[in-house]
Amino acid sequence: MDKEFTEIELDRIIEMAWEDRTPFEAIEFQFGVTEAQVIKIMQKEMKPSSFKMWRKRVQGRSTKHRKLSDNSMKKFKSSRQKQITHNKISKR
């Protein structure tokens, strides 16, 4: 892998990879790393047993692979996620 990531970026990549509903394409869009590179990062940063469990869970999972999912997943954002406008917290 050519790019070095900060600790915060690396933590976010791992967090996104661990989330079931975040497709690998979203990680690639945000950080410029392919699915294969994410797998290498996960293998390097996780305990072997945790890595094996993660790989077993995400292999072939339609929510992690956008091309396997239905077309309801057109965006990288959950439909339940609130819109953030100009970084201001909306008041109730």
From TrEMBL:
The organism's place on the tree of life at top rank: Bacteria
> Where do the record's region annotations for Disordered lie?
54-92
Basic residues bias located where? Answer: 54-67, 74-92
> Any idea what this protein is called?
TIGR03643 family protein
